[in-house]
# Entry
Amino acid sequence: EKTAIGIAHSKLILIGEHAVVHGQPAIAIPFPLIGVETVIEYVPGSVKMDSTFYHGPLHLAPESLHGIVNCINETLDYLGIPCEDLLIRINSSIPPGKGLGSSASVAISVIRSLFDFADRDCTESELLMLANVAETYAHGAPSGIDTLTITSKTPIWYEKENPIDYIELGEDFHFIVADSGRVGDTRTSVESVARLLKSAPKRIQRKIDRIGELTHHAKDAMEKASRQFLGQLLNEAQKELEALGVSDAGLNRLIYFARKEGALGAKLTGGGNGGCIIALAQNEVHSKQLAEKLRKYGATSVWPFVLKKQD
Ligand code: MEV
# Structure
């Protein structure tokens, strides 16, 4: 009896979220501290899913899971595996709705496990094509950055319709991700920015362009090891995201606290309106202290982590 496995890590957007949907660049980083593991087993009967979010036959899954259900069906179809006799166990440590790429990571781990089940290697383009089926359902009009980051080992520079580029870090950067505890909905946030852009095209386009500019500077700051400057850029980007209406009181509270406690910069990460913040610490010791303070201040999870300069 065959079992197969597929894993995927999580992702963070450092800068450029939302603007990336409208053609500006964004910088995203793989976040290996949390992820998804999918195991497939042969179990007679219809295809079933076992996960913290749903347990039961695939065809009876709730509407909210149609993204992943469609992705599974398309992948089975693509691989020529009959749609029966499978149990798909999805084990995720990524909290959903927190801007950490949970939906894309689940999709990628599931696709990898199905390819493993079929004894097939999965090319990058097959993976992205199939994962974007799930993302389109989950996010409406995704830029594709989540799936690309989840399949990458290094920070990426991404502009829609362009090949991705990698960023060479000039030094290690110490970040903290902190969860506001509230769930956000990327699809709703993306739609609200699109509506705003329609209602006040000039004013909102300027903000989107400004985020693009800040993102260009951030790439420079990362490559030239300019921590202070990177921090300022993150703060500036947060200002624009607030003006786009995608931050909220819970996020702002953590962001301002992190800055007061010495973060070089802090902003929301991902879709916003709930979810997580990312803060840039001064160094490793500061990162651990700040993480602890954020936890005491009410962040429901905190992850200090280092983005290492590549060898
Ligand atoms: C979500 O992680 C990032 C957004 O820019 C949406 C997208 O790019 O698809 C908010």
Notes: The CA atoms of residues 248 and 273 lie 5 Å apart. The first helix runs from residue 66 to 79. The chain has two domains: 3-158, 168-307. The chain has a mean pLDDT of 95.
